[in-house]
Amino acid sequence: MTTEPLLIAGGGLIGALLRFSVANAVYRWLGRGFPYGTLAVNLIGSFLLGLFAETLTGPWRPLILTGFMGAFTTFSTFALETFYLIEQGRPLRAALNLSGSIVLGILAAWAGLLGGRWLFLEGDFALAALGWPLPLILHALANAAVAFVAGLVLEAGFERLRPALEYRATLTVLAIGTIATVSSLFLLLGLLQNGFAFRDSLAFLVGIFSLNLLVCAGALWGGFNTARHL
Question: Considering only CA atoms, which of 169, 173, 174, 208 is closest in space to residue 190?
């Protein structure tokens, strides 16, 4: 059985939750008089799609480009919100949303494409020439996304169940430890599969785990705080 459907489903789950979080955070900041939230996620998604379009290979393509980006961005909501603006007698805002989303979206994708080529493929310091940093960065970003979503889910559960402070602290520490340990193992496995040799470097292994622990803890904390403001 191919793993592509599972990768797409996993990426879609993370992308949908992040779209909900980012859009609601933008609406809380700028208000709902204009589709700022939908515009924000579509522009961010267009840039990221361009950034990784020519770089990702193997399982990363269905996971990020199809699953994550497909769920993080939304053409249907953009179309519906534009129609609502017309129906509400706001043709200028509708035209601004329509033209701004299309023009800025294309510019964002173009900027991401140029940035991705320089950063990963063509620049003097392109990561592709260095070998192992690229899979390391991709795994770290994936780990951060999973930790962020875990923070969202945990905080939503805490708000609903109202556990005592000691149980909340215990579950949070367990979540950080579990995510950091499992994700570090996958990260190291990914580096090995990309031909990186650790040369029995214990310091390097400890450094990778420590860095990943900080990334996961920060992303989990970000998920907690985002959930509190939704």
Answer: 208
Long-range CB pairs of 6-9, under 8 A, 24+ apart, other chains included: 7/59, 7/62, 7/63, 7/67, 8/62, 8/63, 8/66, 8/67, 8/70, 9/67
pLDDT tens for each residue of 132-162: 556 667 777 778 888 888 888 888 888 888 8
Picking from 76-80, 106-110, 209-213, 219-223, which range would have the lowest pLDDT averaged per residue?
A: 209-213
User: What span, in angstroms and rounded, lies between the C-alpha atoms of 92 and 226?
Assistant: 32
Q: Which residues contact 144 (CB under 8 A, 6 or more apart)?
A: 215, 216, 218, 219
Contact (CB, 8 A) for 204 and 132: no
Q: Return the structure tokens found at 123.
A: 């620049």
Domain ranges of the chain: 1-127, 131-230
- State the alpha helices, DSSP H only, in 74-201: 75-87, 91-116, 127-130, 133-161, 165-193
Measured between alpha carbons, how far is 34 from 58 in angstroms, rounded to an integer?
39
Q: Given 3-state DSSP classes, what are the helix, strand and coil percentages for the chain, each rounded to the nearest 5?
A: 85, 0, 15
Question: What gap in Å lies between CA 34 and CA 36, rounded to an integer?
Answer: 6
165-193 and 202-228 are packed helices; what angle lies between their axes, rounded to 10 degrees?
Answer: 130
Q: To 5 degrees, how large is the angle CA 141–CA 147–CA 151?
A: 145
Residue 70: how many CB atoms within 10 A of its CB?
18
Number of Cβ atoms within 10 Å of the Cβ of 74 = 20
When pLDDT is cut at 50, 70 and 90, the band that residue 167 belongs to is: confident
